[in-house]
Amino acid sequence: TSVSRGEYRHYMQKEIFEQPMALGRTLQGRLPLDDAPLALGEKTMSLLANARAIRILACGTSYHAGLTAAYWFESLCRLPCRVEVASEFRYRDSYPMPNELVIAISQSGETADTLAAVHDARERGFDGVLAICNVDESSLARAADAVLLTRAGPEIGVASTKAFTTQLAALALTVLALAEREGVRSDMRQALLRLPTQVEEILAMDSAIEELAAAFADKHHALFLGRGVHYPIALEGALKLKEISYIHAEGYPAGELKHGPLALVNEEMPVVAVAPNDSLLEKLRSNLEEVRARGGQLFVFGEDGAVDHGGGMRFHSMPACHPFISPILYVLPLQMLSYHVAVLKGTDVDRPRNLAKSVTVE
Ligand code: G6P
Question: Which GO terms describe its molecular function (predicted)?
């Protein structure tokens, strides 16, 4: 491949560290400092202007970006939003709401299931297709009515990192456009503009996170917990770990622990929790106590004072942040953790067994 790894041992590591730059590019020129309208391109803006509901179609990591954005669309823009795994959408009956916009998310723009789902959505009468895509001249970009490019640059590692966070940034821009259409004025623009700097700050924790990896390398299972908009982040953390370290991992909304996964928790089961300072923190704390009481090994990422750490918990402190961008920040330690676990295990980090960077057949 023509992209060099430079000083990095793996493409995945390089791509993790490219995130501040990639995010800067995704936001550049699109987010004016003053009250001027967002500059997302005329076609994108007009699709958004007409949307009264949103259906997101995607696969894999891109699907997790969609799940995250659904929380934003519903809470910040008050728009109904459903997210579907593209390979399922194409094989079930589903009907659009009036003015329901499709947002198709794909790094490559070549995922066969996502392309087919977009085609089906058109036949079923959905009102326009916006692609969030990393490749300008891809099949998805051509099939859509408008494209919002993520500008992450080529992503070589099969496990997606910078594509995910730039998808979230691009989605955040559409969320802002729609929220502002609804008359919401807030400090969300400023929060988004600070994103690349805050990402930089978190990436500086890499060596501290590397130290946690040893606790995972000999384990067979791991659980990732989050609540609300951070539940999809837990799903993405679990996906990263299983893809490259081959450790079986599941993401769960922490309140659902008691309905099943708690039965699995013991000393052999690391449990990773993202505990940002939001309205669900108190609830999450009591979920974590349930894990601790059963001897589970907890690894918690949160702001100072988020949880009462002590016996049975490794706590990792995160900088304070605006709630809007918090999911984009909290996925970073999970990416770094998976990377270091995989390196310790000696797997082929950039080309994990049985997986392809882009799945162009069904
Ligand atoms: C494959 C890759 C994943 C990716 C998914 C969707 O499974 O291994 O990393 O998330 O495809 O790819 P896309 O290019 O559509 O985002």
Answer: glutamine-fructose-6-phosphate transaminase (isomerizing) activity
Q: Ligand 1: which of 61, 118, 161, 353 to mutate, most ligand atoms within 8 Å of CB?
A: 61
Provide the residue type at 66 as one letter.
G
| 198 pocket-lining for ligand 1 (C-beta < 6 Å) | no
C-alpha gyration radius of the chain: 20
Instruction: Find out whether the beta carbon of 160 lies less than 6 Å from any atom of ligand 1.
Output: yes
Mapped onto helix, strand or coil, the DSSP state of residue 176 is helix
pTM (2 decimals)? Answer: 0.97
pLDDT tens for 277-336 read 888 888 888 888 888 888 889 999 999 988 877 777 899 999 999 999 999 999 999 999
The DSSP element (H or E) to which 342 belongs, if any, is helix 326-345
Concatenate the DSSP letters of all residues of 12-47 into one string: HHHHHHTHHHHHHHHHTTTS-SSSSPP-S-HHHHHH
How far, in Å, is the centroid of ligand 1 from the Cα of 177? Answer: 27
Averaged over 101-121, what is the pLDDT? 97
* Inter-residue contact 80 to 127 (CB < 8 Å): no
Active site residues: 357
**Is the beta carbon of 166 within 6 A of some atom in ligand 1?**
no
Cβ–ligand 1 distance for 245 under 6 Å, the answer: no
What's the pLDDT tens digit per position in 3-28? 889 899 999 999 999 999 999 999 99
Q: Render the burial of 253-292: b for 16+ CB within 10 Å, e for the rest.
A: bbbebeeebbeebeeebbbbbbbbbeebbeebbebbeebb
- Ligand 1 atom 7: the closest Cα is on which residue? 60
- Kindly provide the ipTM of the predicted complex, given to two decimals: 0.98
- Report CA(170)–ligand 1 centroid distance (Å): 17
Q: For residues 83 and 115, is the Cβ–Cβ distance under 8 A?
A: no
